[in-house]
């Protein structure tokens, strides 16, 4: 099947399929004589695996490790469990961070009069560094 059909069957966009091939997450598809990619049912099955892992928030690196374990029939489930447990911890950290952000914004919204005056604690907070703020540059993931 061509890339459009594989995308439709797997729920992974053609753009992401190309990206996964380019990064080595999946092997390059076979090519027809015309040069078009040709995906097998096995390829689509792998793409569905990846889509479900992405739906659970696993990173590309984590998915690569899970794919390797999935292909290894002599694997031990302990490694799969470790990857999933580590991912849960990461998700819980992100949830706490987002709850803290929401609480801060909630407080700021409550303290903003939202009237004709120019004073706005929301904007003041965004322009001013609190004395205890950690200004270390931290990588952000996703929209957070």
From TrEMBL:
InterPro entries: CueR, DNA-bd_dom_put_sf, MerR-type_HTH_dom, MerR_fam, Tscrpt_reg_MerR_DNA-bd. It comes from the Bacteria. This is Cu(I)-responsive transcriptional regulator. Residues 1-69 form the HTH merR-type domain. The lineage of its organism: Bacteria, Pseudomonadati, Pseudomonadota, Alphaproteobacteria, Rhodobacterales. It is found in: Cytoplasm. Keywords: Cytoplasm, DNA-binding, Transcription, Transcription regulation. Its main location: cytoplasm.
């Amino acid at each position: 099947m061509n890339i459009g059909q594989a995308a439709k069957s797997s729920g992974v966009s053609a753009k992401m399929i190309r990206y996964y091939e380019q990064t080595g997450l999946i092997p390059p598809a076979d090519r027809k004589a015309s040069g078009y990619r040709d995906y097998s049912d096995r390829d689509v099955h792998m793409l569905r695996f990846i889509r479900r892992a992405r739906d659970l928030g696993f990173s590309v690196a984590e998915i690569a490790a899970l794919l390797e374990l999935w292909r290894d029939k002599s694997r031990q489930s302990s490694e799969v469990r470790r990857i999933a447990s580590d991912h849960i911890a990461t998700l819980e950290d992100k949830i706490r961070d987002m709850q803290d952000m929401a609480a801060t914004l909630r407080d700021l919204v409550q303290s903003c009069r939202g009237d004709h005056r120019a004073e706005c604690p929301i904007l003041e907070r965004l322009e001013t560094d609190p004395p205890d703020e950690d200004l270390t540059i931290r990588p952000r993931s996703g929209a957070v």
